């Protein structure tokens, strides 16, 4: 297993492991929370060289940052720590809304630092763009956090090309985190060219299509119990005829993976990794065995013929269903 390093951003550069670890599912959304499993997975990730860890204040809410903070205690220097603000929630889980006001930015950062038990955040993202607050004001407050030494690098998540330009003019943006996989490629039209023009790295979340591309999801099972939101209307790609159509695509990926001697998930991750040295995906898991499988993707070398076969097997417009049931929170 050979996890290399990659550099996100050119003006404000952050070197990370080429493969990161999304920690959200350890605390919420994808089945029953598993603090011990999550902690074990983080420790194993660090041992394997997966040092780019991703969390957010809303996960739990708040408990995922605490889990990550405890897990990296004593190993902080090994970690490139990323967290996010902007999806405001109450302690009981109620979603308040998207908040990009400067005062909230400052408070959210201080609260995250306390929960994580660290004195700085390596990469601090705005989780969703607040349409009611000019992005220049939000990033202006984030810039103050850099000047105060609380944050080293700034990021955005699910931001449009125009928003990225405006933000980058206020302070260099190191990375954009957005959904990107064989199943989600719309950013290739406008967003990816802007990132490369401005020298901004890409951090794909859900690079395995929320588990669909692993082959573990079936028409009648595979999600992790009632607490797993993937089976809700929140994720249309997992519903009815859309799921049936998408599983046909997964079967094609499985065939190519079998010929390559790897799993479908490893093939899907290898495809994302092959999209550029400025791309560092963060597949999420709370189980050591899946982490180890994901890490194996780093050793899957894709030829031009392999990439062409995948393009043919999963055409961009073949995937059925929107990414979210409510796309209104996505900056466009």
* Outline type: globular
Mean of residue pLDDT values: 95
Total individual domains: 1
Q: Low-confidence runs (pLDDT<50, min 5 residues)?
A: none
The portion of residues assigned to helices is 25-40%
User: What fraction of the residues are assigned to beta strands by DSSP?
Assistant: 15-25%
How does the helix and strand content classify structurally? alpha/beta
Distance between the termini: 38 Å
- The count of DSSP E runs of length 2 or more, i.e. the number of strands, is 11
- Give me the side-by-side strand order of the main sheet: 3-4-5-8-9-10-11
> In the CATH hierarchy, what is the architecture at level 2?
Alpha-Beta Barrel
SSE string, helices as H and strands as E: EEEHEHEEEHEHEHEHEHHHH
CATH class: Alpha Beta
Q: Which fold does the CATH topology refer to? A: TIM Barrel
State the major sheet.
7 strands, parallel
The count of helical stretches stands at: 10
Q: Whole-number radius of gyration? A: 19 Å
CATH superfamily: NADP-dependent oxidoreductase domain
Give a quick set of tags describing it.
single chain, 332 residues, alpha/beta, 7-stranded parallel beta sheet, 10 helices, 11 strands, 15% strand, NADP_OxRdtase_dom, Aldo-Keto_reductase, oxidoreductase activity
């Amino acid at each position: 297993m050979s996890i290399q390093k990659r550099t996100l951003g050119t003006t404000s550069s952050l070197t990370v492991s080429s493969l990161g670890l999304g920690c959200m599912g350890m605390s919420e959304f994808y089945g029953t929370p598993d603090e011990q499993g999550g902690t074990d997975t983080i420790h194993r990730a660090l041992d394997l060289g997966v040092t780019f860890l991703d969390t957010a204040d809303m996960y739990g809410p708040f408990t995922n940052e605490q889990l990550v903070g405890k897990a990296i205690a004593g190993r902080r220097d090994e970690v490139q720590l990323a967290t996010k603000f902007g999806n405001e929630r109450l302690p009981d889980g109620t979603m308040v809304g998207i908040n990009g006001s400067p005062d909230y930015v400052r408070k959210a950062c201080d609260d995250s630092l306390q929960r994580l038990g660290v004195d700085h955040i390596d990469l601090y993202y705005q989780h969703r763009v607040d349409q009611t607050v000019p992005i220049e004001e939000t990033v202006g407050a984030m810039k103050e956090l850099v000047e105060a030494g609380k944050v080293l690098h700034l990021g955005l998540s699910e931001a449009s090309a125009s928003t990225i330009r405006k933000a980058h003019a206020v302070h260099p943006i190191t990375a954009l985190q957005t959904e990107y996989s064989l199943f989600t490629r719309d950013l290739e039209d406008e967003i990816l060219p802007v990132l490369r023009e401005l020298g901004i790295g890409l951090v794909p979340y859900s690079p395995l299509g929320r588990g669909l591309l692993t082959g573990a999801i079936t028409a009648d099972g595979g999600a992790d119990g009632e607490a797993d939101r993937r089976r809700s209307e929140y994720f249309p790609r997992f519903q009815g005829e859309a799921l049936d159509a998408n599983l046909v695509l997964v079967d094609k990926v499985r065939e190519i993976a079998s010929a390559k001697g790897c799993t479908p998930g490893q093939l899907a991750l290898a495809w994302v990794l092959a999209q550029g040295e400025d791309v560092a995906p963060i597949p999420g898991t709370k189980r050591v065995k899946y982490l180890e499988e994901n890490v194996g993707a780093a050793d899957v070398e894709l030829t031009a013929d392999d990439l062409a076969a995948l393009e043919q097997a999963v055409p961009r417009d073949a995937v059925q269903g929107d990414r979210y049931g409510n796309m209104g929170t996505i900056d466009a």
